[in-house]
């Protein structure tokens, strides 16, 4: 098809194609030429620039950010905000918290780091919100009700417990504990330490140089297994009220050895000295620590006439009759209210010593002798003591190889003692006749609300009738409590 050229003349299509091919060839020839230095006629290729899309950030597109309480429309922050930011960043060097206004103080406490040194925050910050953040960021489970509702008390008690649990004698720097005591002594009320790590074993060559050949293997093990001196620590805590200790190692796995669970004589001596000086202590628990008679007697000797001690727990140890006699002496030379000696090695003579003290005692309200071996001789001695005792509310004699003679005496206790509200005789051989005698004693009892006879072979009928009496007594106690709670309101005009 013919085409029209620039002059208006008609031109065949072939000529047009040849003309265009020449133009393309000449253009490609120009493109392939090397640029000459200083030649301004050759233009550089355009540079691509990235264009920021403001819609990519939703916050930049919104005029009001209602969910952010610190958002401000002002582009330049206020001078107050800049000052607060500076204080927060440099709080460790310049902790000027007490010079701030209340609203500014709150903003600083909400934003400062929980990793600040305790030497800065311990005695300066009393805000519970800050210590709550410290606790929740460090531990998963935080039950503040176990610490008197105080987050600060929780933090310092658990912080100190964590240091003590992983303290390795002769390896860990003692200054770790010495440095933290002045910071936490005013806030620690309770310590629960469920493990004490022993010293690391010495090299064989060093052992041969330091230890004489005349010493026995037992003496060598004893010397090498002393733990941290907890007695020196509790003296430095003036407000300590509860101490719960267990000498052992947790999660030892394949490294298990019985000597990891030794409570050495030196450990006992150090602890006894500390207990004597800790006059604020109310609760002392030393469990699962292989405490024998000698160690128990040493500890009790330093607890005699203690002004504040009301609860003592020596559960799961090796205390026998000699230790029980010492405990009987302590019962009438202290203000003990709760005594727990379950799972020890107390036999009839030890039970008789405790019963002798119980007959004269006027402060003890709970006695737990579960899982010992006091037998009927010891059980009858305790029964005789309960006929004259008027303070004890709860007694546990489960698993003590008791039988019908003890049940016969306890039937008299049920009929005469009006103070007892809970008795546990489970896992004994009371028998059918013993069950009938206990039922007879329960017939006139109006105060007993708990009576555990499981696995005591008393028979279904006796157990059922005793439970019926217990339910009636529980209802009487409930109505009495309800009446006492309503009586103050009735007196109001």
From TrEMBL:
Keywords of the record: Cytoplasm, Cytoskeleton
UniProt subcellular location: Cytoplasm, Cytoskeleton
Instruction: List, alphabetically, the GO terms of the cellular component aspect.
Output: cytoskeleton
Organism this protein belongs to: Alligator mississippiensis
Name this protein carries in UniProt: T-complex-associated testis-expressed protein 1
Gene Ontology BP annotations: microtubule-based movement
Q: Which domain of life is it from?
A: Eukaryota
Carries keyword GTP-binding?
no
Q: Which InterPro entries match?
A: DRC5, Leu-rich_rpt, LRR_dom_sf
| SMART domains tied to this protein | LRR_RI (SM00368)
Quote the Pfam families the UniProt record gives: LRR_6
